[in-house]
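> call design_seq(struct)
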């Protein structure tokens, strides 16, 4: 599996496994451990979490599985996020859905994540969403403390536009290392509004969330989905891919920005299909055909 150098001493696997839906998979901790081991054996060593996934339960489910074989911790990179506050049975003190990027909240959230994931350190912590109430100096204080204490190695953001990235970066004594963005052939916003260009300018590899549009490409009856499925089917036949999912992954992987798709399925056959997509080459015509069918018109 190809690896992406994030810093001089941290690399991510080109494909990342996302745990947002872990609580829907209704697995025993032994099943989750088997899934983790399957990923590691196939070279997927980077796992994407957030404090809020599964209404604050998914990190704990993963941690219980990891605790069955703690030696695996050194073979993986753990990414998690903070900054969204959700009302939840697990957090009765939360009154409303809002964002909190205060120093106190970031530090408390990381301490919970460490406990839930049953680990001493997080490889990369992301601010989950840009917070209109963000105090860059306070975030910098929290990040610096967490780094000095060895609780978090590196930091990044998610869903940040260029001005939000630049504001936060201006307060930090070290570089942000990634921006996790919604990137798929179905959702082109970050391709079109310059956000992906910011990553390229900063030489930062982006992580792609919902690379299959959360499954919408396969199920939706929207005109865009129908049009895109037709084009993906044509390209699938041309390149000999086994499914539309592989063409969607290949479309991201063939882009020059070193995009790291986050796989959202817990099914090993779907994970294996994503891995096989690493070998699929799309030519320029095919890449633009997919783009234009999603846009619904030709490029100008
Ligand atoms: N930073 C953020 O704001 C943010 C937001 C959302 C997600 N994320 C991260 O990104 C990860 C991936 O997101 P995602 O789960 O939305 O990814 P996704 O791969 O776009 O969507 C996964 C969904 O698509 C379905 N699917 C996959 N292959 C399929 C196929 N061949 N045919 C039909 N359905 C198929 C899956 O069903 P099955 O379960 O049946 O396979 C699952 O329900 C998350 O786990 C999380 O780590 C981050």
């Amino acid at each position: 599996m190809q690896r992406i150098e994030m810093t001089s001493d941290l690399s991510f696997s080109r494909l990342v496994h996302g745990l947002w839906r872990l609580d829907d998979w209704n697995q025993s901790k032994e099943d989750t451990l088997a899934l983790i081991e399957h990923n590691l054996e196939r070279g997927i060593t980077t796992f994407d979490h957030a404090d809020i996934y599964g209404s604050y339960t998914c990190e704990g489910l993963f941690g219980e599985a990891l605790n069955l074989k703690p030696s695996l911790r050194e073979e993986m990179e753990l990414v998690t996020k903070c900054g969204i506050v959700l009302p939840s049975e697990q957090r009765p003190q939360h009154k409303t859905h809002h964002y909190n990027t205060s120093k106190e909240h970031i530090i408390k959230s990381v301490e919970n994540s460490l406990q839930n994931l049953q680990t001493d350190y997080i490889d990369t912590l992301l601010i989950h969403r840009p917070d209109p109430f963000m105090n860059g100096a306070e975030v910098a204080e929290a990040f610096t403390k967490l780094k000095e204490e060895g609780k978090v190695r590196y930091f990044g953001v998610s869903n940040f536009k260029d001005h939000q990235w630049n504001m936060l970066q201006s307060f930090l004594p070290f570089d942000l290392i990634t921006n996790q963005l919604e990137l798929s052939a179905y959702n082109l916003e970050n391709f079109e509004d310059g956000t992906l260009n910011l990553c390229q300018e900063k030489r930062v590899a982006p992580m792609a969330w919902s690379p299959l549009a959360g499954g919408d490409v396969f199920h939706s009856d929207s005109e865009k989905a129908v049009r895109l499925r037709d084009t993906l089917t044509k390209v699938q036949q041309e390149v000999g891919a086994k499914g539309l999912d592989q063409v969607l992954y290949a479309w991201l992987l063939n882009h020059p920005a070193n995009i790291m798709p986050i796989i959202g399925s817990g099914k090993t056959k779907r994970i294996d299909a994503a891995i096989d997509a690493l070998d699929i080459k799309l030519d320029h015509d095919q890449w633009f055909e997919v783009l234009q069918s999603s846009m619904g018109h030709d490029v100008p």
